[in-house]
Design the sequence.
RNA sequence: GUGGCCGUAGCUCAGUUGGUCAGAGCGCCGGGAUGUGGCCCCGGAGGUCGCGGGUUCGAACCCCGUCGGUCACCCCA
């Protein structure tokens, strides 16, 4: 990029998604929507910003996301607001506010904002696809949600992904475990990295997912939460595991999986792409949050959900060389060298008939217009010169594949173009061509 | 927030130890007799070398600052 110093540009950490890349996004959204709606989830839109307390109470002030990464601001009325850093808390807030009938299953596609230093796969505005299911404490709901996330990732062709699974216990068994872990680690404080020696008191769980070798060593033999779950949590977790196995969803138990938000309880999970060697290889994650609704002022209501990062999912697709999506092509491109009346009328007519049609502007030469027709990817070019005008015809010239050009009466143009279309779609036009999408 | 690397035409990049160093490929625009794209040929537009300051007789090349990008840490999608 060699912009002038004063040329406008997207803010640091944000990015534009322009055509044709945007067709991948569209296709992804459509695939995702089809899968989760098939499972009874309905689309929910909530505001892009919320009162700060929605996130503070739900995610927890101890997390980095809330502590130092939120886009907070005070509006003109003195309200403290924040751009959403994730998707769960806003949806739970909406639940608390509207109290829809249970079970309530919703999905969303939304931007999320975090003030972090940008790097590969990490943006200040990124986008997430996700679902939330409120009401049932049933472990089969966990199975449903995890398998939906797994299915969403696999539906775009990803295969090199690992599902990591853990249980964080509940308010009964976790506190006891945390104390035990703290005591265990306290004896080995010197073996920990500086940072976690510090954080030992405030949040010993986080030491478990430290990547530094010394911390890994110190925690290898540490007591594991899954081994000391209370009976109900253990039974829940066992049922979840059995369900995933029954559905053929492969997973790997990971006792170090301690997700960053305070609201998680019991089942937590994360998907990592093996194709991404960057530090940001997590393409999605989620978990159960049985206390969150109460934290936001609602009645005790269990819940579980997941979020998938769109940018990271697409990066993983690039790395695995899957989910290449062809942008939709035009059915016809009108080339008119007689002043444009025919281009104007014929193009309009084709569009009215549900066909994809475009044309050249500014009265360019035939060569120029044909080049544009070629670049557009249109199936046929419709040529109009003085002779065609006088005979009220249009030359239909195939641009792709074989076939000779032939004159067609203007009155029959729509049918001629429809017949020349590469795909036999409905009157609304062909669907986007998808490659590598099962 | 901390650190490493980078910043030359729309894109990908060349630019020797500072002195025709402002270039190439692709893309874009135009042309290749008599209305017809893709291949090929010819021509053209387009950059105050991110920005500001400094060193020097002279800087795209050196120094400082700044902005942006990128990678890593932290954390996460």
Sequence:
């Amino acid at each position: 990029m060699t912009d002038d110093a004063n040329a406008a540009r997207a803010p640091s950490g944000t990015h534009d998604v322009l055509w044709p890349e945007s067709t991948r996004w569209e296709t992804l959204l459509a695939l995702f929507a089809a899968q989760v709606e098939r499972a009874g989830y309905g689309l929910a839109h909530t505001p892009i910003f919320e009162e700060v307390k929605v996130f503070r109470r739900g995610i927890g002030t101890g997390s980095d996301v809330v502590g130092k990464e939120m886009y907070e601001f005070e509006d003109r009325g003195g309200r403290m607001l924040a751009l959403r850093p994730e998707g769960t808390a806003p949806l739970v807030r909406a639940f608390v506010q509207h109290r829809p009938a249970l079970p309530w299953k919703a999905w969303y596609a939304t931007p999320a904002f975090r003030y972090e230093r940008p790097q590969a796969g990490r943006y200040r505005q990124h986008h997430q696809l996700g679902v939330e299911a409120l009401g049932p404490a049933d472990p089969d709901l966990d199975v449903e949600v995890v398998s939906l996330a797994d299915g969403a990732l696999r539906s775009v062709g990803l295969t090199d992904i690992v599902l990591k699974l853990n249980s964080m216990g509940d308010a009964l068994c976790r506190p006891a475990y945390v104390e035990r872990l703290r005591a265990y680690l306290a004896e080995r404080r010197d073996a920990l990295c500086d940072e976690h020696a510090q954080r030992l008191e405030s949040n010993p769980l986080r030491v478990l997912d430290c990547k530094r070798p010394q911390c890994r060593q110190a925690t290898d033999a540490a007591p594991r939460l899954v081994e000391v779950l209370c009976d109900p949590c253990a039974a829940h977790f066992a049922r979840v595991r059995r369900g995933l196995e029954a559905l053929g969803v492969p997973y790997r138990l990971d006792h170090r999986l301690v997700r960053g938000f305070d609201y998680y309880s019991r089942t937590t999970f994360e998907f990592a792409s093996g194709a991404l060697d960057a530090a940001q290889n997590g393409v999605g994650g989620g978990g159960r949050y049985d206390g969150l609704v109460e934290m936001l002022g609602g009645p005790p209501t269990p819940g579980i959900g997941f979020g998938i990062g769109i940018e990271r999912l697409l990066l993983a697709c690039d790395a695995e060389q899957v989910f290449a999506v062809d942008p939709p092509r035009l059915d016809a491109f009108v080339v008119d060298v007689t002043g444009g009346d025919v281009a104007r009328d014929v193009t309009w007519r084709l569009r009215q008939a549900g066909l994809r049609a475009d044309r050249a502007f500014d009265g360019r030469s035939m060569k120029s217009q044909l080049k544009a027709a070629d670049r557009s990817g249109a199936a046929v070019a419709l040529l109009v010169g003085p002779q065609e005008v006088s005979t009220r015809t249009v030359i239909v010239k195939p641009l792709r594949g074989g076939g000779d050009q032939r004159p067609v009466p203007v009155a029959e143009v729509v049918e001629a173009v429809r017949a020349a279309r590469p795909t036999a779609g409905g009157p609304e036009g062909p669907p986007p061509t998808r490659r590598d999408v099962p």
User: Anything to note?
Assistant: Chain A is about 35% helix and 20% strand. The longest strand of chain A covers residues 104-113. The CA atoms of residues 325 and 435 of chain A lie 6 Å apart. The two ends of chain A are 37 Å apart (CA to CA).
